Please model this.
Amino acid sequence: MRKLILLFSVAFSLNAFSQIEKPVTKGNMILVGGGTIVSNKVQSTYGTNTSKTSVFTISLNPGFGYFIIDNLAIGLNTSISYYKQNSTKYYGLGAGPTIRYYFNNGFFIKAETSFSFLHGLDTNSSRQKSYSLAPGVGYAFFINQKVAFEPCLSYIYIHDNYNSDFIDRVNNIAFELNFSIFL
Model:
């Protein structure tokens, strides 16, 4: 019960910060920074054979947006990632469009897509292409008028294409933690 009361107290305190004037108006810019750590199972298809393997991913995801109208920002997200699937290791660089809509109560919805190029590490010289789609919903806790802490719950679909016969499809639910600076 104490933990529950503490949780509500912290949420109420953070919500008090979010009541300040929000800089989500036409002409403003937003810089977003965050990262993800994911460990999951991946279904791989090679020709007619299907298998499941474990994948560990860590990534940094900086982004930029411009408010084209009040509450609606469009921009570019980027990603720098490290992947390990069994003993195979990759690094990836990606970019893609993003769109965010902020509601007056602090909630926001977003949609991002990313196109990445993965390069093998160590003795792995393979290269592959990947794309992802990530819609999500979150809440912007404004620490002050220019900085917000933005936890977000997202569905992430990733499609990796090694060649025409070997394809990975990944479906994740991710909890993201981002910081945003509004300019």
Summary: The beta strands are 29-46, 49-60, 63-69, 72-85, 88-102, 107-120, 127-139, 141-142, 147-161, 166-182. The CA atoms of residues 80 and 93 lie 5 Å apart.
